[in-house]
Here is the input.
Amino acid sequence: MNTLAAINHQVRLAARPIGLPKPGDWSRTEEPVREPADGEILVKVLYLSLDPAMRGWMNEGKSYIPPVGLGEVMRAGGVGRVIASRSPHFAEGDYVSALTGVQEYWTGRADDKLAGVARIDPQLAPLPVWLNALGMPGMTGYFGLTEIGRPKAGETVLVSGAAGAVGQTVGQVARHLGCRAIGIAGGRDKCDFVVNELGFDGCIDYKNTSLRDGLKQHCPNGVDVYFDNVGGEILDTVLTRINFKARIVICGAISQYNNTTPVKGPSNYLSLLVNRARMEGMVVFDFAERYQEAVQIIGKWIQEGSFKTREDIVEGLDQFPAALLMLFEGKNFGKLVLRVAAG
Amino acid sequence: MNTLAAINHQVRLAARPIGLPKPGDWSRTEEPVREPADGEILVKVLYLSLDPAMRGWMNEGKSYIPPVGLGEVMRAGGVGRVIASRSPHFAEGDYVSALTGVQEYWTGRADDKLAGVARIDPQLAPLPVWLNALGMPGMTGYFGLTEIGRPKAGETVLVSGAAGAVGQTVGQVARHLGCRAIGIAGGRDKCDFVVNELGFDGCIDYKNTSLRDGLKQHCPNGVDVYFDNVGGEILDTVLTRINFKARIVICGAISQYNNTTPVKGPSNYLSLLVNRARMEGMVVFDFAERYQEAVQIIGKWIQEGSFKTREDIVEGLDQFPAALLMLFEGKNFGKLVLRVAAG
Here is the structure.
C-alpha cells in the first residue's frame, strides 16, 4: 500500500464538555498518514471501542490516567491491521489491539507502553469481540470480579449495566464460578437478553420495575458481591441489601459522569459498617500483565459456546460524537463499537 | 451486703428519638435489686461508658445489634464490682466489665454472651481506663486499625475524633507501629492534647482551620489509612487526599447519627476507583475472641508510659441523658464516662 497517498481522518477534543459532550466539543482534522519509523508500525484502524470511561478522560484534573489534552486526538481503544511494519515483532497483515485513538490510522512504536499494542487472533473470535469480552471491558469484568469481588461458589453476584460490555462478562464469569448471577439493566429487551442469551439467573429492569422489589425477588438471600458500573440511586439501593462481609466493586458510575452538580454520594454507605462490608475501586490497567490469562480462559469459553457476547456496531468514524452519547442514554444494546473500515 | 434492701435506679428508653435525644425520650425507674440465681452474679455498677454508637442502638431497624426495646433499660457498657456471686467463675470483690445497662446494679448470668462479662484488673489501670483504651473503644481502635486499616511502618494514618476514645487509641497504636499519626479534632485544646500528650505527629483543628489546608500541611504525602469516626464533610474532604491503595476504616459517623434528613453520602467516593482504594466497615464485636491480646499489648504500653489515656468523667446516673448529648456536641474532652458510684 502506498500509505503516503492516504489521508488519516481524526476526531480531536476541542473543548472540555460541561455535562453531556456537545458537537462543538469535537473537531475533525485530516492529515497525511505517517510512515512508520524504525521500531514503529502503521495500523489501519478497523473498529473503535466506545466506553463510559471516555467521559472521564475528557475532564481536566488528576485521575488514574492523564486527561486527553485539548486539540489532541481523542483517546480510544481500537483493533486494526498492521499495514506497514518496521518492528521485528509485528508483520504486515497482523491484527492488533491498541490505544489507537479516534482516527483511521495509527503510527507508533510497537513497544509503546501506553498504547499497549497486542497481537490478536481473529480466528478465536471476530474483531469486535476483541474490544468486548477479549478486550478492556472483558478484562475489567474478569479481574474486577475475580480479584476485587472474589466471589465464592454459591454466592450471589449482582452487576449493573448487565447488558453492557463489562456487565456481560461479570455475570458470565460469575456463572462459570458457580455463583448466582443477577443483572440490572434498563428495559425488557436487555433483561431478556441477559437471562436468555447470557444465562444470568435473573435480571431486574430498573426502568420499569422497582429495584427494591426486584432485589427482594431475585436476591432473596441478599447480595454478596455487587459490581457497580453506574453509581447513583442504584448503588444506594443495593447498599440496603448487601450481606455480611459483602464486597462492592467500584468500576464506574455512568449515571454521574455528565453531572453538572456534585456526584451523588452513597447515602447508605453506613451499611458497610453494619455488614462489615468492603467497597473497593478497580482500574483494569493494574492487571495488564495478566490479560493473556483472562483472554485464554474467556476465549476457551467462547469457543465452547459457554460464553456469549453481543456488540452494538455503529458505522463510520464520523458517527463517533453521536455514538458516544448513546452510552449515556443507555441506547446501546451490547458493547458499543464503531466500525471505522472494512476488515 | 443485704442486697434485698437496696434499690436499683435505672434509665430506660421511653421513646425513639427524632434527631437529638430529648429528655422525654427517657424514663427513670427503680426496682429492688435482684439476688443472683444459680450461675448468676450481681454487679454494683461503678462507671458507665457513653458512646456515639448508643444513638444507633436507640433506632428501630436492622443493624449489627438489635435495637434497645422501648421500655428497656438503656444498653451501656460498664465496669463494676461483684457484690454477690453464685458463679464459680467470679468471686465477691472481683472487678468486671460487662454490658450492664444504664442502672446501678446488674444481675445476670456470668456466661451471658451478649453481656460479655470479663474480669478486669484495677492494678493495671484505673477503672475508667477499662471503658477507654482497655475497653470497647480501645478494642475498636486497635483491631480496626491493625486488622482493617493494616498500616505499614512509614505510612500516614489519619483519624477523626482524635481526642475521643477510639481516636486516642488509633493514633497511639499507629505511632507504635512506626506510622505518621495525624488527628482531626475540634478546638485548639483538643489538638494540643493530641500532639503534646498523646504524641501524634500533628492534629488538624477542623473547627478553626480549613481541613483541606490542614491535610496539605500535615499529610504532604497523602493519606494511606483514614480511620473515620465522623462521616459527613470530613470524610468527603479526606477522600480527595487519599493515596493509591489507601484504606478507609468506617468505624462510625457521629456527624450523621442525629440527622433527620438522609445521611450525607461521600460525594467523592469515586476517589476509591481512581486510587484503587478500599472503604471497609468494622464492628468491634467481631474481634471479641482476641480482646485479651489487645488488652495485654495496650496494658503494657500504659504501664511503660508509652500510651496515654484521658477520660472526661461526669458524675451521677441522673446525668446520663445530658451527658450523652455532650458527645454529639463534641463537648467531651477524652473518653466520656459516667461515674455511678464510688469504687
User: Anything to note?
Assistant: The radius of gyration of chain B is 20 Å. Chain B has two domains: 3-132+309-339, 136-285. The mean pLDDT of chain B is 95.
